[in-house]
Amino acid sequence: MSVEALEDRVSVLFWRRVDPYLDDAAVGVVDLGVMERDKDWSRAHVRVRWSASGFARTEVFIMKRAASAVTDARQGLRTARCPACGAPPAIAEPAACAYCGAPADDGRRDWVLDRVVSFEAWRRPPALSAPAPVAAAAWKPLSPMAAFEAMAAVMVSDGEVSLGERAALDAFARARGLPAERTVEVLAAARAGALDVPAAENGEQAAAIIRSMARIGLADGVVNQRERGVLVAYAARYGLTPDDVSAIVQAERGAMSA
Predict the structure, then answer these.
(1) Left, alpha or beta for 82 (phi > 0: left; psi -120 to 50: alpha)?
(2) DSSP helix/strand/coil, 29
(3) Dihedrals φ, ψ of 106, to 5°?
(4) How many other CB atoms sit within 10 Å of the CB of residue 219?
């Protein structure tokens, strides 16, 4: 299967998974960045940048296929259909065909979806045994420490640290295995006014940093005016407007309450 065909496959999967209530959803970019292979499986990491209802998201669809499988390029998107009767899947990830009952492909015949992760949570595989057909230099997800620094900066911006904010920050550090001594240094610098919000290397990182700051601000229920001021000032450095910030905060509030 060609790069273009694999990207088209992911586009189809995206539209099968997207919330039907997001009637203004639009896809901006679908691009293959990383291929990896072990003795049993091949995996393709495909970035999808999309937007809807005033917010933007970047996700990575990780596709898998048995290392011994060979895709029939002549079949194109028809390989996403039921291998027994050719019917299209009725839902995004069926266990079996809704029409004939045949088991769905588990990746032993062709590319199937393994999982979807947010771009900021995505990590480049440590060892790649298959070269990527396109450069992935722009694929630089936000590091956990950079997110922690951004969250610490906005947490102290109003001069008050609520129990909810501190608990959320500590939970973030523990979940990502951040060194305790480094987090103590970051918090001390934040309280002393000597901590700058990390610079973003690309648009996805800028949005991820703003989402991290919004998340810690919302830990006590509301992003107050001083916290919002930090977000708006940071966003302006990357061409984002106050309305963009409002949309990101709203999306994070929805995600946290889901």
Answers:
(1) beta
(2) strand
(3) -100, 15
(4) 21
In this predicted structure, what is the pLDDT of residue 132?
A: 46
Cα dihedral 177→181→183→184 (10° resolution): 150
Asked if residue 135 belongs to a domain, the reply is no
Q: What is the pLDDT of residues 61-113, one digit of tens each?
A: 999 989 888 776 555 444 556 665 665 655 555 656 666 665 666 778 888 88
- Full residue range of the structural domain in which residue 160 is found: 144-257
Q: What is the pLDDT of residue 25?
A: 85
Residues 186 and 230 in one domain: yes
Over the chain, what is the mean pLDDT? 79
- Asked if residue 131 belongs to a domain, the reply is no
Same domain membership, residue 162 and residue 104: no
In percent, the amount of the chain with pLDDT more than 90 equals: 13
Number of domains the chain is built from: 2
Q: For residue 67, is it left (φ>0), alpha (ψ between -120 and 50) or beta?
A: alpha
Task: Please report the pLDDT score of residue 206 as a whole number.
Answer: 82
Between 81 and 50, name the one with better pLDDT.
Answer: 50
Beta carbons within 10 angstroms of residue 249's beta carbon? 23
Residues 148 and 200 in one domain: yes
Cβ atoms of residues 110 and 44 within 8 Å? no
In a shared domain, residues 184 and 236: yes
Which residues partner with 96 through β-bridges? 103
Task: Say if CB 240 and CB 170 are below 8 A apart.
Answer: no
Residue 185 included in any domain: yes
